[in-house]
Amino acid sequence: MRYVTYAQHGLEYPGLLHERTLYDLNEALGQTGQTAVPSLRALIEAAAENPKILTALQAVDFGKCAPVENATLCAPIPRPARNIFCLGKNYAAHATEVKETRLSATGIPQTPIYFTKTASPALPAEGVIDCPLELTQKLDYEAELAVVIGKAGKNIPAADAESYIFGYTILNDISARDLQAKHEQWFRGKNLDTFCPMGPVLVDKSELPFPVNVQVTCRVNGEVRQNANTSTLIFDIPTILSDLSHGYTLLPGDIISTGTPAGVGAGFDPPRFLQDGDVVECEIEQIGILRNIVRRTV
Predict the structure, then answer these.
(1) Which residues of the chain, if any, have pLDDT below 70?
(2) CA distance 281 to 288
(3) Are 84 and 117 in contact (CB under 8 A)?
(4) Per the structure, how many domains does the chain have?
(5) Dihedral, CA atoms, 235, 240, 243, 249, nearest 10 degrees?
(6) Pair 122, 78: CB distance under 8 Å
(7) What pTM was estimated for this model as a whole?
(8) Whole domain around residue 224: which residue ranges?
(9) For a designed S-S bond to 48, which of 7, 109, 151, 222 qualifies (C-beta 3.0 to 4.6 A apart)?
(10) Is residue 78 part of a domain?
(11) CA gap 235, 109 in Å, rounded
(12) How does pLDDT run across 14-67, given as a tens digit for each residue?
């Protein structure tokens, strides 16, 4: 299953992508005798209480569903209930390049580094990363695999991590490197409006064999800048879920972005930050491409 949120006539609806065709999720649920949900986040919460909802969706006859037309894709979960949990410096080569840019005083982390990112709302695929030059001169990209939690869990054993996952999507952790350095703590530099592109789909966990070994790539104007496999994460997904949930309850619909590979703009000599009109494509195999355009106004 590939879940989406789409906009039509000014309203947002949960949907399903099946063989590149968009369908209304609630029409599919009605076919299986399940109760309609107002959003994809609501579906995840409902499925946490009744997993049979998702099992029933696997049996939908899309031939009996009417395709949705004239719709625009939003981020899969446009307004998460809580901030997105992010991992800093979770690929060794990226940890090294960040150290060299003086954005951080340490090298390879010995324990996971967390920060949070707002999405109010998350920017959809094809949305504009709109950041005036007066706010930052050093606009950067970070392609990441994001994990969406499927049921509540606290003190999760690493061996049980997969059972707490609903699915996966793509996130671009847009960062203002000068603000990040100026304020030292990363929140300010990573939380301007439009700084959280996400999508275009939320892929059911059954589509990515566990442990998740997928290629994460970022291109700027067609040039590959980042390219690494999630198998090289310093802290893998089971470790992240277990560590983050130690003494802290993860909830259905929570989103965890697992970190970015080497190749960010700040890591080049000289740096290669995003400019007006740049096209940024974050691609993760078996999920898709998150494409956004940059607008840099005076």
Answers:
(1) 99-106
(2) 10
(3) yes
(4) 2
(5) 170
(6) yes
(7) 0.96
(8) 84-295
(9) 151
(10) no
(11) 9
(12) 999 999 999 999 999 999 999 999 999 999 999 999 999 999 999 999 999 999
